[in-house]
Every structure is written in C-alpha cells, then in structure tokens.
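Changelog entry: the Metallo-beta-lactamase domain-containing protein record was regenerated in this release. Current contents:
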Amino acid sequence: MTVYGPPGTSHLVRTALDYIDTPVNIHRLQYPPVPMPVELFSAEEPRVSGDVEPSLIYEDENVSVYATENSHYTTMPAFVHPYGVDRSYSYRFDTADRSVVFSGDTGQSHALAKLAKDADILVIEVIDLERQMEVVREMSGLPDSQLKMVMDHMAKEHISPDQIGLLAAKASVGQLVLTHVVPGLDSEQDITPYVSGVRQHYAGAVQLGSDFDCL
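Regenerated structure tokens:
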C-alpha cells in the first residue's frame, strides 16, 4: 500500500512503522514467514500546485485522482518542519460511473470549488462556529480577548453550513455528505444547525454522515 499525502506523509508512515516495530518482531516468531510491514507500506508526497488548478496525482485503469491545496492553513503561522511547511489537500476521485470529492479540513476555498465542479458527491467537513466557541470557552476558561487565534482558526480555516451551501451551489454538486462535524458532541440532540444553513443556498440532497452509512 502506498500512502499519498501532503508534506509530512513520508515521516508519518516511517514513524508509524517504527512505532509497531517491537510488537511486529515479537509476533513474527509465532507465525509462518510473511512480509514485514516495512516491506508493504510506502509513501509518496505528490507535487500539488498552489493555484486553483487541480493536480493529477494518481491514475490507473479504474480511477483518476486529483488534488488541490485548500485554505486550512491561511491564518496559522507557517512553521517549517524538517519535512517542509504544513499543507492541507482536498481530493477528487473520478471513476467510470461517478466522481467523489473529499474536502478535508478547509475554510472557504476557490480551489475546492473548482475541484468539486459537477461532482456527484462532495464529502465535506462542517462547523457550527457558535457551538464550537462555547465548547472552547468552557474548556479553556479564557475570555474572548485571549482566544483570538483560536477564533480566527475556527472561523476562517473551517467551513460553516452557509458557506458549504454557497460552494455546493456554485460547483453544481449532485449530493452533499457532511462529516467531521464540529463540535459534534455526543450530547447533541439537535443536528439542524449543521444542515439548515446549507439549505439556504443548495437544493440538492444533504446527508449528515454517520458510521457505516452507505450511498
């Protein structure tokens, strides 16, 4: 299996293999010889352009995969890691019978709108900003004056139902699946805030994703 992703993916795969090295070596003595994880997993960090034009990062006889850099790191200070600067990608999978786009973490993004143009399904994160800030205030005990960086991050680097509706309508997306729901608390009984804003601008099917759902 090859894992494709933004800068840091190779580091992630390598350190994950290091993490399981001890149990692998313990259990390999109890079973017939099989390939080791280090032989089975690799990583690639394809070059993705920083403009709105999607980049083709993988293609075979079944699928073409495109990626674009979204806006999840527009306000956070750029920190240079040994592997480079953090990036966040959105992905599009085109097959013979459908196209599916995964937003990943993102704020409003012209690049994502272009990537999702005429897609059958857009799987996209969603944030109820007011609810999330209530959670942050409760957890931190800090006044808003000390939470500006967090508030900017939540408001500009995640995407609200209203913004999702505008994006989906602009891109003529066939169906929306809302996932990575923020705050998405177990205690939440009313999920309408995650959907109602979308409905103001988008007339297509909207589904709030749940574990084991099938489309």
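The mean pLDDT is 93.
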